[in-house]
Amino acid sequence: MKRKLSAAIAAILATATLAACSSGGDSPGAGDATSTADADNRVTVRVGVTDKAQEYWTTFTDLAAEEGIDVELVNFTDYTQPNPILSSGDLELNQFQHLLYLANYNVASDDDLEPIGSTAIYQLGLYTTKGYASPDDIPEGAEIAIPNDVVNQARALLVLQSAGLITLTDGGNAFSTPAEIDEAASRVKVVPVDANQTSVQLQSLDAAVINNNFATDAGIDPTTAIYSDLEDTDTARPYLNIWVARAEDKDNPVYAQLIEIYHSKEVTDQLLEENGGTAVVEDVPADELQSDLADLEDLVRESAA
């Protein structure tokens, strides 16, 4: 897995917009992790999220309540807050980030938050208005817009490499830049622009790599992408979104109940519908996620050395 992650790892994708608030309640901490909840033994779990308005959360909280778990969703507008607030004990869980984001956070903050469940991978897509049906149709010398920020640029380059449009001299990594494109072995030229301008560039360039949220904001149907990194789930694995807990709570059975509820057909069907089919639900065991996180943290440290 580490070899796959080394080739696939790319810049943090944290495009969530999230609303800081806090609420109390009896919650199952590490000392309470001995049994599951039920109707006669109710517990409250505060979960930091980025998209509380999504309807699938209502389905999720209703199903959890039937199992004796009262979920309080705490919405955030600043994505730098959910992890520190979880560490401080003012949340029990959060669900807003992917593996690579957590790896960067843990290394930078000297923290030890752990993934305890997975959710889905959300695509980074390649779009065009020039009538190309696939990357193979894009002509030699075409110009493609990509985000220019460290958050998304490397991932966009990996999308183009996976699509067969460019070749990166080092195979691609978390810090790949356009300077590392092997021009002689590449079919297209990249044009870095602000991420929120990638959709605008569709009118003048041959194609653009656009984040889901910016595509939606521009009225672009995400299902019209001619390629995305969802077509190579190994490449996208660092971007698998996750449930996160404090290290001492990673084996809490109540939290494991919540992961099972999240992966119920009622919730996942609604999640996929609300995302227009541009997500792949993944139910990865916690121990595998934790191993992946450790590998990613090693790569982050190596890159900073």
UniProtKB/TrEMBL annotation:
SUPFAM superfamilies: Periplasmic binding protein-like II. GO terms for cellular component: membrane. Keywords: Lipoprotein, Membrane, Palmitate, Signal. It is found in: Membrane. Residues 1-19 form the signal peptide. Coiled coil: none annotated. It is a lipid-anchor. Pfam families: Lipoprotein_9 (PF03180). It comes from the Bacteria. The keyword Lipoprotein applies. The keyword Transmembrane does not apply. Belongs to the NlpA lipoprotein family. This is D-methionine transport system substrate-binding protein.
